[in-house]
Amino acid sequence: xxxxxxxxxxxxxxxxxxxxxxxxxxxxxxxxxxxxxxxxxxxxxxxxxxxxxxxxxxxxxxxxxxxxxxxxxxxxxxxxxxxxxxxxxxxxxxxxxxxxxxxxxxxxxxxxxxxxxxxxxxxxxxxxxxxxxxxxxxxxxxx
Length: 143
Fold this sequence. Notes:
The chain has helices at residues 14-24, 43-50, 64-74, 92-96, 119-129, and strands at residues 4-8, 31-37, 55-57, 79-83, 101-105, 137-140. The chain has 143 residues and is of the alpha/beta class. The protein has one domain (4-140): 3-Layer(aba) Sandwich (Rossmann fold), CATH 3.40.50. A six-stranded mixed beta sheet has the order 3-2-1-4-5-6, with helices on both faces. The longest helix has 11 residues, at 14-24.
């Protein structure tokens, strides 16, 4: 399968950075078609410029999902990756990319998910809990 990736990230997009490095080193056969953020200050947008990847900043409003789905379609994306994307989606985007959106979360879900559970806050919560196990969760988003 020809993987044509579109990333959504709200801040650093560290997983997107790692995936891009895997592609550049030829350990992953895929192409990054577009990076999208709702945050004008997101570091991932700087990475997009440095790597010469097309990027967009899209206002998170009542048409956000529709606009993002249009952008992804324009670049023929066939797999969407949420890399630290902090906003809720539950409509057009999920319908248009059914079973083709992966969410990467830096801890085990559902225990360390939900509002406010992102970045270092997740890791701090895991350490504070003294849980015996930790890990990351990658899941297919469904509506």
